[in-house]
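Interim report, section 4.2 (structural modelling).
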Amino acid sequence: MLSKRFEGVRISGLACAVPDNKLVADSYRERFGNAAVDKFVSVTGIKQRYSAKEGQTASDLCFVAADALMKKKGLNGDDIDALIFLTQTPDYCQPSTAFVLHKRLKIKQDCLVFDMNIGCSAFIVGVYTAAGLVESKTAERILVLVGDAGTLRDAPPDDISYNMMFGDGGTAVLVERGEGTIDGMVRSDGEGFNVLIAPVPGYRFPLYAANGDDKLQKKMAGDDVFLFTLTKVPRLFKEFYSTFGCSSEKFDYYMLHQANQMIIDHIARKLKLPKEKVHVSIDKYGNTDGSSIPIGIVDLCESLMEPRKLKLVTSGFGIGLSWGVMSFELDSVDVLPMIFTNDIYEEGRNI
Amino acid sequence: MTNEKKMELLADIFDVEVDELTSETELGSLDMDSVTVLSFIAMMDEEFGKEIKGSEVRSLKTIQDMLDIMKE
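Predicted structure of the assembly:
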């Protein structure tokens, strides 16, 4: 069973950035009709989200989030031992986009740098990986960046789900040695590799997309993903409680991947979670893939009346198939307010 | 679960009144979209503890076909 209690490791900071470009559900009424839009909003809970402008990529959003977080924590590039960028929308096929961020954030050469191609479970998988590196003393402080953008690219024009579901976002999380514990559990099932799939990589140059080739279009077998989620995720929560000797009462808030409201409600019902403990941000930000958990945490912290330490349990699930559950404590003073940005790395296009 | 209760669950999924459904009602005559399929999958999981694939739901022809698999 792949589960682990990481001792002496903590999340010391978190920041998120979204594009300064709000898209509201009402603006789709002419295109898809009132009935279809009303039904979509009712089922998914998505009333608005933020979408990258032409040329803006996940790495741009992550750069802004990481830069703000490092400034807030008084860190510079010499303080980061590893940079892990988790995305499904890299700037290029090669090299890892993490190197673009390594340059932009002016991080030292004495550093481990790589991408991980992970989607909706990216926050869990990224922190799990980083916590292992810190606990094993491979690195002292790691910047975990999670982001996806340009999700409207190749959206089939008539597909309301693809056009209204996804928001873009970038996250920066600092994982470092310190007083604290992170409990994590991850699962994978390659049998479902083609349940959610986007065959064409590279997002800095949107021109080189699927170009109308049906075989290269993004695919999402919604029924299969839904069935996977509603069976596997509650089951993993039960294993998590049993492995780490805890129960739902232990946590202040549940932060589930913001896939859609129907899935969030179903998992919450199966786990018998009090509604007030299940934080929802999909109404404001849409489904932002790997960033949806940290964006939800930022949204949660912005809603608190006063700063406090939070006991959080999070769960990501999706493309891969990949799913996981992770709990940790986080001080809300270490979480930055949401950042809205128009940043585009022009040098990244002049290669 | 009684047949009456099952019909109530199906009416809720199809967003119609219970008396609008009979066991012979053809699913093609109802608004059987992707949300309906997901709602049926969720209901089967929640009420009967059964994992039903979307393709299986889409292959059903009548309300009676649905009633037949609504068993624990």
